[in-house]
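Q: I'm writing a short explainer about SREBF2 for a general audience and would like to include a description of its predicted shape. Could you first generate the structure from this sequence?
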Amino acid sequence: MSNGISSSNTSVSGFKHDLNALQKLTSYVPEVKKQLCLHTATLRVMLGANPSRTNLLLKQTSARTSTQQHKSVTQALAYKMAARHLPSALHSRPDSQQYLLSEAAKTYELCGNTKAALNCRQMVNRSSLRGGSSNSSSTAALSS
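A: Of course. Here's the predicted structure. Afterward I'll give you a sentence or two in plain language.
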């Protein structure tokens, strides 16, 4: 599965190393667990892994976050990743990509991140112009 993201062996190796370190930290700092699902999902996107499991990790990301501000930022990023990198077959409704990006924009705005909110709104507009929820042509790198 090609997702348009080029990832060198060095960057994937480094990301895996960081993910392993994050996993080790979870026994000492329980709050780190909240980021583990999101970073694992990011690695899966980088590798083009099975999108069903990636979708599950993104859903868990939203559910596991406790503080409101942190939850909002994490949830917005999970929405954005799901909209941009998961196949439309996994979405529950035809306009899911636009809906998820709109929710991400609202959430970023509530957190005060107007740049990320604007970025999400621009993606919604481009998606609407393309005529649907196809996300296969999205090749931009993740940004927040």
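A: For your explainer, you could say: Residues 68-85 form the longest helix (18 residues).
Q: Perfect, that's easy to follow.
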